[in-house]
# Entry
Amino acid sequence: MGVGPPSIRAEYGRPFPARILVLEVRDRRKPESEPLGWLLIEREATYERDSADGSIERASISLYYERIMPKHEWRDHGQSGDFAGSFSRARNSVSLSSAHNGRGAIFLDTLRGHRVGTYLLNQIVIWVQQWPEASVQSIELLGNQAEKENKTRRNRFYERFGLEFDYTDPEQREGRSRPMLVKDLKQVLTWKENIREHELLSYLGEQVTMLDDTRGLLRLRDREVESLWRERDEMRAKPLGWALRTLWQKHAHVLGAVVGIALLAALIWRRLSGG
# Structure
């Protein structure tokens, strides 16, 4: 068997996103609000091919995520993790939760409730759709993932992708997904309402531009502050001169008009008086 990556711009005829992305995540209930956070996403896909005909024998994909945090706010717990998927030709099956074509569960701790999990699992679904006739390995639902406020959302999360479950308890806290084919999976695009993708170089370019703009504004502010300090020093040294000049600068148009009118009136008076 040989190991070889797909081409840079296409994956067996399918376009795929850049290997490293930055996700800008906003509140799903208020998508126009300021971002809640940013995630760095690294995508790694591997393919093992038959050396005779080049067909894919095994493949896997991993989406590593790590939250971008200010240095003084860094907390390691729950800020990084991964989603994984895989394909096995021998089994003619895919996994939506394991890089080794096995059963598994999906966990996400950071920015929960704001469609980050939807985004990540949707990328896995898009990837496995290369094999529409393959079966989907079962996904396991665990009881410790089913807090009261989270259980319904968790179950609905999977159901939107077309998965159906056999539950082992009346409260639907635990269970396994039913057998299905890849072609019956559904893509879920609701993440587009509050998550924006940035290619890494583009995102870094935007940050550099913002930094340059901020530095320019700071330099302008510094010049204005220096001008105010000079004006203060002059006011203290020559208060009368400073007051007269300031008065003239603020009211030059009015004072100019008054002086002009006075000169014109004096000229008219001289002519009328025969001067």
User: Anything to note?
Assistant: The chain has a mean pLDDT of 81.
